[in-house]
Each structure stands twice: as C-alpha cells, then as structure tokens.
Amino acid sequence: MSNAILAVIAYTDAITIKAEGKINQKDHSTAPALLRSVLGRDLPDARFKDLQNLLSTKDEMQYGVKLTMQDTARDALSRLDTFGDWAKSWLEARGIA
C-alpha cells in the first residue's frame, strides 16, 4: 500500500512538472487539487478520484500500525495501475517515456 501511494505521488509530480513546472510542496492531500489546476478538464474525473482515494490512506499506511485487508490492497493496486496507465500515456504523448 505504501509503495502504491508513493508511486501515484511520483506520477502526479511528473505530470505537474512537465505541464507547468510545478511540484506539490504542501501536504500530499493537496496534490489532486494541484493536478486539477494544472490539467483542468484534461484530468479525467475518475483519475482525480483514484488519486484522492489513494492519498486519503497515506498517513495511515505509511505511519500507522493498522493491518490492511488484502481486498483493500488489491483495490489500491488496481487504482494505481489505472492511474499509472493514464499517467504514462499522458507523459508519453509529451515525449517522456
């Protein structure tokens, strides 16, 4: 879970840097708003929600001691895969592989 969260943050940073030279310097919970600000309507609502969902568990997953159910982890990985596919496609269309 922690690695999935870090990966979605890295994808988000790569896009915002490429699009406008901006990187999220605040709490990671603000990353979805920055991505929306940078991409506007080019950010699909479903990807925005995937990002919000993954980041909503960041502190608990990285600093907490709570165990996570396997289904929750699978859902997170599925969201990451979907977000990652979209992010890679967005970046590749702009010359970044």
Automatic annotation (TrEMBL):
Protein's UniProt name: Uncharacterized protein
Lineage: Bacteria, Pseudomonadati, Pseudomonadota, Alphaproteobacteria, Acetobacterales
